[in-house]
Design goal:
The chain is about 40% helix and about 20% strand. The chain has helices at about 45-60, 65-80, 85-95, 100-120, 155-170, 185-195, 210-220, 230-245, 265-280, 295-310, 330-345, 380, 400-405, 420-430, 465-470; strands spanning about 10, 10-15, 15-20, 25-30, 35-40, 125-130, 135-140, 145-150, 170-175, 200-205, 225-230, 250, 255-260, 290-295, 345-350, 370, 390-395, 415, 435-440, 460, 470-480. Helix 2 (about 65-80) runs antiparallel to helix 4, helix 3 (about 85-95) crosses helix 4 and helix 9 packs across helix 10. The structure holds nicotinamide-adenine-dinucleotide. Nicotinamide-adenine-dinucleotide binds near residues 149, 150 and 253.
Length: about 475
């Protein structure tokens, strides 16, 4: 065991490192070792961060041109690529995810900065032909100071997803990373400053949700809020935003279905169905956690999936297995609680508990699990599990498939597997989900694709050009162009 000192990471406010009296231990989910400590910020640090963001916005950032902001974002992207291995190792240490998934996260983070670096140069308003002597036009202006609260599952990717459009559009930001995985957010701000982002344009205040998170959401000095996380906390954040009357983006949970029809392509579908529920051990908001399958292909498909699930390697993320641990003991207890109910109500086909063996004794591992014959009304059908648990239900008709898919209060993503183009379009038009994928799932993450939930999966949109518009407000200017008589 190493006796090297545990690194301590202060908050970053106005470009300065700000230590706190109290610290939060950051654990490696693979073995529950403390690998770092981060500042435990509270209302005082949040206040200072919002003031710093306001100062930088008013004195510098709002007066920069799109091309200047674009250059900074391009440099951030280049540095993220250059530091890919370092960032991936840090993300794996912090979240437990397999190294190759963490590498992909670093690549996607770079893509966000690249995409918005390009997009902001093309951002503009529109002209409105009121009358020949009354030209009018709209401007897209930054809001000012944005608060961003993010979860622990894809910290680097989600930080980049929410910060890149906000910064490119000319806002200054305060980021509150999740207490369970704050390390890459703190590294990101260092990289952004190295890339030329002025001090105070991005401030990072790690801390607990009830302390730093609640203080940020309620801060009256914000002009906009973006929250990614659970539905329950989303409700609290939206309530706080209502008190300050600021717009809020909510990216919340999901219970996304795959709909598999008899004419599906098994070679295409099987690996993607497996990946969609086992990537980062199923701790993914748009995980394909429900499999709705036509009775005629049900047995063969589930057999094929069971075989794949049993072949998955499980281990510490640094060893780059197919699946790492869950984020924390608490998360593992939640998932095991769902599995206990699922074993009682449904048919367990594989997995169902903690893997056996020395490797799994200290970390937060759970087996990849398939529950079959799951029906509406059962808890595992209704609730987001946020673990590697695929719930299988059978249908006999297209209408029944749609009814099962729609039997949820969420609406984040859906996958349709069929060779029938009419059926695919019919479903794409009816499924209430922010993203519908046909014969693929998640389009390899595409940063260009707008992403936002229907129903209780959220409000507003991140990703794509839509997000750039979301981080700007619209001002109308009308000119009376009449010469004096
Ligand atoms: P969470 O809601 O518990 O925490 C998210 C963030 O909110 C953390 O930074 C946390 O510290 C903070 N927080 C907690 N209490 C707070 C409060 N009272 N006020 C302000 N902030 C507070 O969620 P989680 O457990 O970190 O993440 C899992 C959830 O996030 C799942 O439901 C998942 O589906 C969802 N998620 C959604 C997306 C998406 O893009 N739609 C992406 C990732 C995760």
């Amino acid at each position: 065991m190493s006796d090297a000192p545990i690194p301590e990471h202060p908050a970053v406010i106005a470009g300065k490192r700000v230590a706190t009296d109290r610290w939060i231990d950051v654990l490696d989910p693979s073995d529950a070792r403390t690998v770092a400590r981060v500042a435990r910020c509270g209302p005082a640090e949040v206040r200072a961060a919002v003031e710093a963001a306001r100062h930088t916005h008013e004195s510098v950032w709002r007066f920069t041109t799109p091309v200047e902001r674009s250059r900074v974002c391009h440099r951030v992207a280049a540095l993220l690529r250059e530091r890919r291995e370092e960032l991936a190792a840090l993300e794996t240490l912090d979240t437990g995810k397999p190294l190759r998934q963490a590498r992909a996260d670093a690549d996607v983070a770079a893509r966000y900065f690249e995409f918005y670096a390009g997009a902001v140069e093309a951002l503009g308003g529109e002209t409105i032909q009121l009358r020949p002597d009354r030209p009018a036009f709209t401007l897209r202006e930054p809001y000012g100071v944005c608060g961003h609260i993010i979860p622990w599952n894809y910290p680097l990717q989600i930080a980049a997803r929410t910060l890149a459009p906000a910064l490119a559009a000319g806002n200054c930001c305060v980021l509150k990373p999740a207490e369970d995985a704050p390390l890459t957010s703190l590294r990101l701000v260092e990289i952004a400053e190295e890339a030329g982002l002025p001090p105070g344009a991005l401030n990072v205040v790690p801390g607990y949700g009830a302390e730093a998170g609640a203080a940020l959401a309620a801060h009256p000095g914000l002009d906009r809020l973006a929250f990614t996380g659970s539905r329950e906390v989303g409700e609290a954040v939206m309530t706080a935003a209502a008190r300050s009357i600021v717009p809020v983006t909510l990216e919340l949970g999901g219970k996304s279905p795959h709909l598999v029809f008899p004419d599906y392509d098994a070679a295409l579908a099987v690996p993607q169905i497996v990946e969609s529920i086992t990537e980062h051990a199923g701790q993914n908001c748009s995980a394909g956690s429900r499999l709705l399958v036509h009775r005629s292909v049900h047995a063969d498909l589930v057999d094929a999936l069971v075989e794949r699930f049993r072949a998955l390697t499980i281990g510490p993320g640094a060893a780059d297995p197919d699946m790492g641990p869950l984020i924390s003991a608490r998360q593992r207890e939640r998932v095991l609680g769902h599995l206990a109910g699922g074993r009682r109500d449904a048919v367990l086909r594989t997995g169902g508990g903690v893997p056996e063996g020395e490797t799994y004794t200290r970390g937060f591992f759970v087996e990849p699990t398939i529950l079959d014959q799951v029906v509406p009304g059962q808890r595992v059908f209704e609730e987001e599990i946020f673990g590697p648990v695929l719930c299988v239900s059978v249908f006999d008709s297209l209408e029944e498939a749609l009814a099962l898919a729609e039997h949820t209060t969420y609406g984040l993503a859906a996958g349709v597997w069929t060779s029938d183009v009419t059926r695919a379009h019919w479903l794409a038009g009816r499924l209430r989900a922010g993203q519908v994928f046909v014969n693929n799932y998640s389009a390899a993450g595409g940063v260009e694709l707008p992403f936002g939930g229907y129903r209780r999966s959220g409000i507003g949109v991140e990703k794509g050009l839509e997000a750039l518009r979301e981080y700007t407000r619209c001002k109308t200017v009308a000119i009376h162009a009449q010469l004096p008589s």
